[in-house]
UniProtKB/TrEMBL annotation, chains A, B:
The gene is norG3. Signal peptide: none annotated. SUPFAM superfamilies: PLP-dependent transferases, Winged helix' DNA-binding domain. This is HTH-type transcriptional regulator NorG. One of its GO terms (molecular function) is pyridoxal phosphate binding. PANTHER family: HTH-TYPE TRANSCRIPTIONAL REGULATORY PROTEIN GABR, TRANSCRIPTIONAL REGULATORY PROTEIN. In the C-terminal section; belongs to the class-I pyridoxal-phosphate-dependent aminotransferase family. Keywords: DNA-binding, Pyridoxal phosphate, Transcription, Transcription regulation. Residues 4-72 form the HTH gntR-type domain.
Length: 516, 516
């Protein structure tokens, strides 16, 4: 906390006061002059304090009167319930994922999308395009044979050195030789699973989990056993223990300990320690997908699960395309005691990665600009998540639930009255708004009344309008009830008249709708 | 033939005369003046004619006397025998490949290599490094969000357009939508095999074949059924028919129709047509690995096997890193009726490829510079193959056999008296010369007395010395006989005295040794 700037520390102090009730809605924040005197700070720091609280939604400025406390709407929305952990998961609920994903993709492609909330990715402007382009151009100049000599199978040396060095921050003491560069985290997961399990084997995963993992398992002929997972603390260790006792054929466990996709949960350190020990004790390989840890709202990312791994039982996988640049396909794997087998599988699957992007990324990541970028990205995403959550709280019908995760790119939204997300998907798609229905995040039908909403877009009028419209769609569907499932919603094409309205008029309409 | 320059057409005419015996060894070629008058050509064309024949080894210049016919030594070496095609292959000969490859790699890493004949790759200087660097730099400038926006899953549009357009030259009428960009040809082969076969299934392959393919099959839990393959005409269709009749469980056939690795064979068009029909008739998917066709010594590459495919039964795979730049990992797949399944598997395995190298390569390939590069590469490789073959003919003991392939990067060498290539590998490695032993090219032990020799290095003193030393090693091992297998050869470390000799002395010694 001490590494936060002073104005942020003071802002946290006042937010605490709001939480505890010392400052109530409508109360006036101390004036700038009082703040300067009270905390012995400069006018500029006092101003930063107030503006930070304003942009986070905790106070609002009233002309010439000062800043007044408000409660962000997102705080009014109910959190989700914890899943039951005392019942062993039922593999018979398996309905498969490929058909669902194919159907999703095919339907999404029918119309050119206007607004895509279905991905989990930041907008291009959140990433350091220019600095990376310069790094690539520089590497092309410095290493003239970059394109005509094959890069080493393990990966570019300097890139692996940067990765190994940064691993120290999350408690992993590894050397560059322990790391193998892959085509994104998804290839790392493929290799990890192929190294430790065979077709027909059962693999325990979080429930819900991202459909990419379910696809990998299905494409490898492996079966996913879905373990109840808390929106707050991630995989339920009790439920996993029960599953291990109930089924003796679990060949691997895959977890996303930090900012789980789609839940956004972060496992407490004590849970990670227990999980590593549990898997070690039962001889079950533990695969850690650590793609998001740099997006946790904290000056340094949380400790990797692998940092509790003494015997090489944890396979650590991570990647750059969510945190450094979505146009890169750079992942890496630290495979513990399966290193040699993973290296062989990588060679047989895709050989070495290209050298250029590795060396360019490595060059950039070795400078202070990388951490500055990550801080900036976290700040932007935090604002965007909070704005999105506020909009959902304002626009979606009562009974909607969300958990505001401590970082990351998305929100997981529970729809009221178990409304089918497939119906929401269809109706929204007709207006060229794409959402990710909860059906994609499980091989069962347990999450059919959930949506995953991307918060990667800077919050602006288009996003606001889209979320408002989503709220209306959900409300309309609820009013119709389940019986009307087959009837399509009236499609409203973008009205030329509306598009021709001056931006100012649209903004005002948007604001008033929002306040309603 | 008409598209060849005039001097090459005339050179071919005189080479024919040498083959038929009209011109005998020692005969004098017509003088430059006579050539000009005889063919109505300029002095410059006559000179090009003579110099081409000289560099190809067909004539030698004698001071002030003109050019005299010689027979390149490579013509004196015996070709290999055709494999028996009337015996069904025996799957029981399976001994596996991973252990052999791992052992090969581990032993190769023991010493820093001096000269690597074991790869199948051109030297960096044979590829257009500068033009490609410029293309990449230009794409980074033209598309500022290249690194921050994910490329399409299928691949960069312009790159696929260039690939589709060039496919017309080999008889494939496909659209960019039929193509999926992959991480090298090896990923394309993985996807093709995973699309059409399951673990436990049997896949027919050429014998010998490149160990990469055997590794892919073994890593996917599939079984390779090795089909006899001619050093001249490739896969034996008769042997494949017999195998299909004998075993009813063949789920796919994989072939390299052009410049097969390691044989260098090229399938005649009639064979390709029959093979496509045979597989279609039996409902067996046919996977074509077309990595090398641009390296065939001809103005345009041979027709793809896929051009005989009416029903989408042929999956075509190819890549750039042998023909455009070894530092790129760009392959592509045209999967016929398995397109949707391959696209799903690609998504689950590695997602999209990075955009930068695709777009840069596409930019370069859309210009005339690409075909100019390919012509230059083919010319260099032809010279290097012939020089290597001449050296083998001169330096290796009698009984050595080679087939000079009509293009490509390597020679497949049969050792005399069934000498074990593993013993040659060990003895050469002690002198830091690496060769690829024939054991790597089959799951059986049928090719233990073969070596694959890379011709990708421009022929110079180091290569000449290395080949001469290889010949001596082979001779020594033969003289010792099989009984002495375990005894290591005396290792000769590079003598400081020899290294200190002036280059001229070394050149002379090398030449005299070569003439011996």
């Amino acid at each position: 906390m001490d590494s936060l700037p002073l104005y942020r520390q003071l802002a946290a102090h006042y937010v605490d006061a709001i939480h505890t009730g010392s400052l109530k809605q409508g109360d006036k924040l101390p004036s700038l002059r009082s703040l300067m005197r009270l905390h012995g700070i400069s006018l500029s720091t006092a101003l930063q304090l107030c503006r930070t609280m304003e942009s986070d939604g905790w106070v609002e400025a009233r002309d010439r009167s000062g800043y007044f406390v408000r409660r962000p709407r997102r705080l009014a929305i109910a959190p989700m319930e914890e899943p039951p952990a005392g019942v062993p998961p039922d593999p018979a609920q398996y309905v498969g994922i490929h058909a669902k994903v194919s159907d999703f993709v095919a339907r999404r492609r029918q119309l050119p999308e206007k607004l895509n909330f279905s991905i989990a990715r930041g907008a291009p402007e959140l990433y350091p395009a220019e600095a990376l382009r310069n790094a690539m151009t520089r590497m092309l100049r410095q290493q003239p044979d970059m394109l005509t000599v094959a890069a080493p199978l393990k990966g570019h040396r300097q890139f692996r050195e940067v990765l190994a060095q940064r691993s120290l921050r999350v408690g992993m003491a590894i050397s560059p030789e322990d790391i193998l560069v892959t085509n994104g985290c998804i290839e790392a997961l493929n290799l990890a699973l192929r190294a430790v399990a065979q077709p027909g084997d059962t693999v325990a995963v979080e429930s819900p989990t991202f459909y990419g993992l379910l696809q990998v398992l299905e494409s490898l002929g492996m079966r996913a056993l879905e373990i109840p997972t808390s929106p707050q603390t991630g995989l339920s260790i009790e439920a996993l223990e029960l599953a291990i006792r109930t089924y003796d054929n679990i060949k691997a466990v895959v977890v996303v300990p930090h900012l789980q996709n789609p839940l956004g949960s972060v496992m407490p350190d004590a849970h990670k320690a227990r999980l590593a020990q549990l898997c070690e004790r039962h001889g079950i390989p533990l695969i850690e997908d650590d793609t998001y840890s740099e997006l946790v709202d904290a000056p340094t990312p949380p400790r990797a699960l692998k940092s509790w791994d003494a015997g090489g039982n944890v396979i650590h996988c991570a990647s750059l395309h969510k945190i450094l640049a979505p146009g890169l396909r750079l992942g890496w794997i630290t495979a513990g005691r399966w290193h040699a087998r993973v290296e062989m599988l990588k060679y047989a699957q895709t050989r070495n990665n290209e050298g250029l992007s590795q060396s360019g990324a490595g060059l950039f990541m070795a400078t202070g600009a990388y951490d500055r970028h990550l801080r900036h990205l976290r700040t932007c995403l935090k604002t965007q998540r909070e704005q999105t959550a506020d909009a959902i709280a304002g626009y979606f019908p009562a009974g909607t639930r969300i958990n505001l995760p401590p970082g990351g790119l998305q929100l997981w939204v529970e729809l009221p009255e178990r409304l089918s997300s497939s119906r929401v998907f269809d109706a929204a798609l007709a207006e060229r708004i794409v959402v990710a229905p909860g059906t994609l995040f499980s091989n069962s039908s347990r999450f059919d009344h959930y949506l995953r909403i991307n918060c990667g877009w800077p919050y602006g009028e288009a996003v606001d309008t889209g979320l408002r419209r989503l709220g209306q769609i959900i409300e309309t569907l609820m009013n119709r009830g389940a019986g009307a499932a087959a009837a399509p919603l009236p499609v409203r094409p973008a009205s030329p008249a509306a598009a021709a309205r001056p931006p100012e008029a649209r903004r005002i309409q948007s604001s008033s709708a929002r306040a309603a």
